[in-house]
Amino acid sequence: MRAPLQAALVEAFAEAPLGGNGAGVVWLQEPATPDWMQAVAARLQQSETAFLWAGAPGDWRLRWFTPSCEVPLCGHATLAAALALGHWGQLSLGQPLALRSRSGPLAVRLESLEPASARVVLPSSGLDVQPAPAYLADLLGEPPLTYWSSPLGYRVALLAESFDLAALPVPSDQLQGQDRQGLVVMQALRPRQASRGQAGSGQLPQVLGQPADYQLRFFAPGLGISEDPVTGSAHALVAPFWQERLGRRTVVGWQPSSTAGGMVCATAEPGTIALTGRGHLLWDGELAGGPPGLDPAGWSVCDC
Fold first, then answer.
1. CA 120 and chain centroid, separation
2. Per the confidence metrics, is the pTM higher than 0.85?
3. Are residues 117 and 47 both part of a single domain?
4. How does pLDDT run across 59-85, given as a tens digit for each residue?
5. Which domain does 213 fall in, by range?
6. Which residues are catalytic?
7. Which of 12, 50, 161, 267 is least enclosed by beta carbons within 10 angstroms?
8. Does residue 275 form part of some domain?
9. Radius of gyration of the chain measured on its C-alpha atoms
10. For residue 73, what are the CA distances in angstroms to 42, 224, 236?
């Protein structure tokens, strides 16, 4: 019988417990097969589940699975992985670590322990202006001010400040074409706007003590995610737009989902954005048995 595996559920980018975006984290002792990891992710039913495997001491590999498919990048599950490694005594406060993934090495660092917070550096691939699909104006109730495509595969729609983004019914069933692989709907925030997760009407949400500059929601039915509660990869994608618009190197993003949360976004190396946010451990336990088969070759793609 295979030995049990350490596993945890971490609420990432959550200012308070029972918020943010939950991610499963599984510490593998051997390189697992994609079929087994997919089955575990489907049972855990989180937006993403992160699987960690150390090919050698300190050489951590990372892969992410939604309940229905593997994805090339996931910000909140990377933050969750860093916080879980800290909880399991595998990462010290302030210790730099690069998690090797299919999107390249991702730098992570524990920033604090109580409350727990971490910093992750994600690639930011840029936005290309495109004509907005005609159906979006009817679906959203007004046409986007600007609409972009991105190398990540996400589409991005900018809406007016007056739009009630928090009250938008989840449109995933009606999304068409490439929008189904990831649609970011975003707007600037002003103090007069009320949003889920705020302390009170007319107050801006706070992330690590800083007021939010913008908010977004993320829908990806093509990835098996009707709505992702707090999406690190989406914020890394759009943060440069808000940095340029506001004339600042650091901006604060918020996501007014049913379990709202946010992050501080800062310029890191060229082509990357550092995301810093809190996380909360919801449970820590064991999976009863390890994977039934091994796939070392499948993890070799992480040598990037």
1. 10
2. yes
3. yes
4. 999 999 999 999 999 999 999 999 999
5. 128-270
6. 48
7. 161
8. no
9. 19
10. 18, 15, 11
